[in-house]
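re: that chain from earlier
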Amino acid sequence: MRPRSQQKIAVVLVSGGMDSCVTAAIAARKYSLALLHVNYGQRTEARELKAFHDVADFYGAKQRLVVSLKALEAIGHSSLTDRDIKVSRANLKRKGIPSSYVPFRNAHLLATATSWAEALGASAIFIGAVEEDSSGYPDCRRIFYDAFEKTIAAGTKPGTRIKILTPVIGMKKDEIVKTGVRLKAPLHLTWSCYQSSHKACGVCDSCALRLRGFQRAGMKDPLPYAKRPLYR
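^ sequence. v structure.
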C-alpha cells in the first residue's frame, strides 16, 4: 500500500448506513478518503449525521464535508422527506417504486461529489448503491452511473478524470455484511432505519433488508431494534 501522503484521493458518499460504510472500507484500501455527507431533510437526518461522523472518526478522515440539499425536502413526494406521507411497512416482494424514493436524489449527491472531487483533484467517487434495491430506486442502477460518468467527462475542466465506483452494487445484503466484517468495517456505528432515530423500527424496507442480510449471513445485527422480525 502506498504511504497515505502519496495515495490517490477518493470522494466517498457516506450516508451513515451500512452499504456506504462498507463502501468506505473498500475505498480505504487504495485511496485517501474524503468523506461526503448530505442532509436533505430526511426523517432521521440528525441520527444519520451522527453515524457519518462516527464512521469518519473511525477511519481518521481529515477531509470530510457535510452539505445541505434542502431543495429535496421542499420538493417532497417521498416518505423520507414529507411527514404527510407514511413510511411503508416492509414488503421485500414489492414491485415498483416505493414511497421512500426521493426523486432523482442520487444525481444531486453525485453532482455535489463531482464538484468536490474536481476541486480536490480526486480520481474517483465511491457510492454505496446496491442493485438489490434497484427495482424501487432507478438511480441505484449501474446504467445510471455509467451515464453520469459521461456527464462528468463533458462538464468538468480538461484533463479531469473521475470514475464513479460502485463496489457493492452487485452484492446481496448478506454479502455486504460479510464483506464489512471481513474488512473490519464499523457496522455497529451505522444507522439504516428510515423512521426512527433511537431504536431502529425493524419494519421499514431499509430495516428489513438490513436484518435479512445479517440473518442470511448467520450474524446478529449490533443495532438496537424495537422489533426484530425474521426475514430469512
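The domain at 4-216 is CATH 3.40.50.620 (Rossmann fold).
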